[in-house]
Specification:
about 400 residues, alpha+beta, five-stranded antiparallel beta sheet, about 40% helix, about 20% strand, flat
Length: about 400
């Protein structure tokens, strides 16, 4: 049984050009923050206790992930496969008998198919140009709806979206947003120190306690917070391949700082043998020769000996884990504190979330939303008259 081929199946590819209305507003983000800063000072609501940090992906107005964004794999799938040879094949069964003049229907069909083929060739050229620009971009992404948007990773498989990444720091006393930032970076691992220092500057505090989730875990960021006199509490992601395979993981090895050795589950001590550079980090390598005859070797490693890597600033990471062990309720406090403002903002912004496009405009829109949230929060805490008095002052 033959396969029917209709060139019109590709015409839907020509209707993908989004029409958008660009709007600019002249409200400055720093002005919003400075104005609310004065209200804090007058109302004595400036909190100086624990700050929690979390991120939230807020999608653009149309959320056109597949229709209006391209990745390297998607670009090839969107190229139409029709060529000039298809025209003759499509009209082969419409030929008239020898010596007869082509009917008007056949002529119109040929003309219409030529026009469609020309449009498809233009579409191929357009997509080829997009692919060229895609390969030239640093992150191999192009958004046709908003050039500044980027694909954000989400927990569900295949549920990613083209969006902006909004960071916020919320105090645990009054649940006020003390600092926020809009980025187009799809991961949170490089945002911890920036947000912690911004919160510390907003609160004008000499020291600060910050609680974050495991998505912010990065040794360099924790070290930067420690150097800025910010105590970070966050869990370490469990990414050990040995642990997932049922063998002993690194947490099963106890570090003895006095002797600078690791004690393994079998009681043997792994001493420092050499130092290696990995991704710009100096890693100290610990091992022992006793693994070859150890009765627990099958539960520990598939190599001749087990090696433990220790970052030169590992003590900073261990201090963060110690704080979490001493205060296991910290993560519950984080959820109760920082998720509430985002839920309120999303409800107010509606299903489409951001109405603006381009990063500076979206940052201004977010600043206005944060300002309105904080004003509403202070109004609920103090009441109308104290708030008006603080604003007049």
């Amino acid at each position: 049984m033959g396969h029917s081929y209709d060139l019109r199946d590709h015409l839907s590819a020509l209707e993908r050009l989004p029409q958008s209305c660009w709007i600019s507003i002249s409200v400055n983000q720093q002005w919003c923050s400075a104005s609310f800063r004065r209200i804090w000072d007058q109302t004595l609501l400036c909190p100086k206790e624990m700050i929690t940090t979390v991120s939230c992906c807020i999608a653009t107005v149309r959320r056109l992930l597949r229709q209006s964004s391209c990745s390297r794999g998607a670009a090839g799938q969107r190229l139409p496969s029709a060529t000039g040879d298809d025209l003759g094949r499509l009209t082969a069964d419409r030929q008239t008998a020898a010596g007869e003049e082509p009917s008007e229907t056949v002529q119109l069909t040929k003309t219409r198919l030529k026009e469609k083929l020309a449009k498809l060739e233009e579409e191929v050229k357009r997509l080829a140009a997009i692919e060229k620009a895609l390969l030239a971009s640093p992150d191999k992404q192009i958004s046709l709806t908003d050039p500044d948007c980027r694909s954000m990773a989400t927990s569900g498989r295949g549920s990613g979206m083209v969006a902006y990444n909004v960071q916020s720091a919320v105090d645990t006393t009054n649940h006020l947003i003390v600092a926020h930032e809009v980025t187009n970076v799809g991961a949170d691992r490089s945002q911890l120190a920036t947000m912690a220092q911004a919160a510390k500057a907003a609160l004008r505090s000499d020291n600060l306690d910050v609680v974050a989730d495991r998505g912010y875990f990065k040794g360099e960021q924790i070290l930067a917070c420690e150097q800025a006199v910010v105590a970070v509490t966050l869990p370490k992601p469990q990414t050990s391949g040995a642990k997932s395979a049922g063998r002993f993981g690194k947490p099963d090895f106890v570090y003895l700082a006095k002797d600078d050795v690791y004690r393994c589950p079998a009681g043997e001590k792994l001493a420092h043998h050499f130092t290696a550079d990995e991704d710009g980090q100096k890693m100290r390598i610990y091992l022992t020769k006793a693994c070859r005859t150890c009765p627990l070797k099958d539960q520990c490693t598939t190599s001749n000996e087990r090696r433990i890597k220790r970052w030169e600033h590992e003590h900073v990471v261990e201090a963060a884990q110690t704080r979490l062990d001493q205060n296991p309720q910290a993560m519950r406090v984080r959820r109760q504190t920082v998720e509430h403002p985002f839920a309120t903002l999303k409800m107010r912004m509606g299903a489409t979330h951001f109405l603006m496009k381009r990063l500076p405009n979206v940052a201004t829109e977010m600043a206005l939303n944060v300002l309105s949230y904080n004003l509403t929060r202070v109004l609920n805490i103090l009441g109308v008259e104290p708030l008006l008095a603080a604003m007049r002052a």
